[in-house]
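Why does this matter for the project? Reviewers at the last site visit asked to see concrete outputs rather than summary tables. In response, this paragraph embeds two records directly. Each consists of the residue sequence and, immediately after it, the corresponding structure tokens. Nothing has been edited or filtered.
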Amino acid sequence: MTGFINVNKEQGVSSAREVARIKFLAKTPCGHMGTLDPMASGVLPVAIGNAARLFDYFLSKEKTYVAVFKFGVDYDTLDVTGNLLLGGGRIPERTEIESVLSEFVGEIGQIPPNYSAKSVNGRRGYQLARAGVDFELPPKTVKIKSVKLLDRLSEDEYSFEIECGGGTYIRSIARDLGKRLGTCAAMSSLVRTQSGPFTIENSVRTETLTCENLDGYIIKTQDVLSFNSIYPSEAEAKKLLNGLSVRCDKPDGTYKFFDGKGAFYGLAEVKSSILKVKTKLC
């Protein structure tokens, strides 16, 4: 059993719990394609079996979020689940926010939250933060495609749609946006609406899944890969599946590889007119 379940993660539960539920039903090792904090909800692609080998591929894919930022407050975790450090700060107007959003688009340097899984001398940032250790993580370059202000939800909360590359911390955007506006801000809600080819419209809650219906929700691995396909002859496929390479007139690149009988096998790579099997995904 291989492929993906497009999970709609509930708020308040861990990504690991959702993966464990799928693993229990599939009776096969599973893994998620990019974690969501417990306070966040939305799209959490879970890979079953060999599909988990695509972790790095999906980690780099663009993601879309709908986030709510609460202005005038500061929390140690950069979201409202943490300890309040400051309250009663200034609340910016919509026009102020819109005037600076372009500064948060493109390749930007972003300092991850201290309460994160980033490693510092062999220890996780959140472990050091909980222990009261004073430290600051180095900035990293992230790619943000767009930041759109959606609605003013209350006196101090605004909602945003954010399209970004993997590794972006939405909590850090809230912090930095508040600072840019001469105040402070923290994230109060987060929903991931898309992760690569997976969208929230086609997602499923894990509590609706059973051993009997799981197969009907599995998305085939080949259906979520954007590579072109390659179909060698049976003789060529036999060589390739035995670790050999064959000549190929396809352009250099990665391809979805189908065996000589038309069944999907995994990924293959063409380099300098030489074709070789790269990763088994079936």
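We now turn to the second protein, recorded in exactly the same manner.
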Amino acid sequence: MVNIYFNTPKSGPEFTNWDDHISNAGRPGHFAKYMRVRLPYMDQALSALIDDIFTRNLDQKILVVVVGEFGRTPRLSTNTTGVGRNHWPQAYSALLSGGGLRMGQVIGATNSKAEYPAEQPHTPQDLLATIYRHLGIDPSSTLTDHSGRPVYILDSGRPIADLI
């Protein structure tokens, strides 16, 4: 058993969400400040979860996936109300742990400015195919919509070979 003690975060605008546009959610926006406040809590919780999963030998059964819906601009944007990062769908990262996958590696890379994938690019569908494989779901399976038409669970994508 692992005992974990967390500091309870203070309430305030820096804890509202992770969508760090300038002036998002009614806050002025200061990307670096919010990351310094939020990241230690995420790091502590995520590392404790992963450590607990491996300590209990559950790493073959449990797959931890940490990913946003897309990336953020490689550069900070600044205006009179603050500093933030806008949406950037061209490149983003994901963290996977456990699930019987091969761990301890970085797959792919961006160009020198972190703008676009430069090595081993994968799609969100590849990530989903990898997750579905772990769950025992055939991504080529179909569901039937309300009009009786088949809809693929995943219409493209393959499990990421370097993880399997």
